[in-house]
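Data availability (excerpt). The following record was deposited with the supplementary files.
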Amino acid sequence: MCQHYHSLDSVQLSASWLTIGVFDGVHRGHQKIVQKLTAGAHEIGSPAVVVTFDPHPAVVLAGRKIQCLTTPSERAEIFFNMGVDVVITMEFTRQLAEHTAFDFMADLKHHLDLQRLLIGYDFALGKNREGNHGRLSQIGKELGFQVNAIEPITINDAVISSTIIRQAIANGDVRLAAEKLGRPYLATGLVIPGDGRGRTIGLPTANVDIPETKAVPRNGVYACWAIVGKEKYQAVVNIGLRPTFTTGEVLPRVEAHLLDFGSDLYGKSVTLELIERLRDEKKFNSVQELLGQIREDINVAKGILTPG
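Predicted structure:
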């Protein structure tokens, strides 16, 4: 099925199993819920459905600036790869936040013919977050669906959360983020024209335009895999302001040098799998000094990315 909707209006399903949440990052805790959802639903031939939200509720309700771990399309793709049949990304608004838990669940029941709801241990929805496990169980008895709460996954006795992973990304600790996500941290964007300086010094780079709402790791140099279409290439990525060449830039750039790749990437989508942080960004006294450091970065990245 694999259908991605952006509202409930055109959705009409039968006997669905459902989970609800922002699911930013779709980390290992989220995955536990989704795995139980898809296994249970498919065992009896029911569709597995995820309802998620964009923008993040905290942006709308608290005015917080949150750079998310996943875009809506990235989240949907991860869900589909896990066996989810239908993803509904609802626009989160103040009006939606005013819905009571009963009204929201009644709407879902009408469109999805909801039979079973799986939620996280601390989940709540509806006005004033009234729709916790107990309240949703009461609503389920009235509307005709069952509710199951899933216990959290911990690593070293710490509960996994999107907030903790965002902090790891902000610190540049992509290895810790990957441990909690269950996969490397991804950043996808179109390759846009830069100033072409990398090509003039023999090290062409792809200037990857990452969405402003996406969390970008701390400035520095990273070993990564670059995915272009169905092919993967070893790469070294610089995130930052390129201090050797500029002094006035404010917005960070994400520039990837793909190893053993010679084609034109302008206008193409590139996904970066960030594997390990190599070093801080720093200013060099000359282009030759910079080139020497980049060659060293490439050798270190190859050692990290080459199997065995």
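Summary of structural features: The chain has two domains: 3-159, 184-305.
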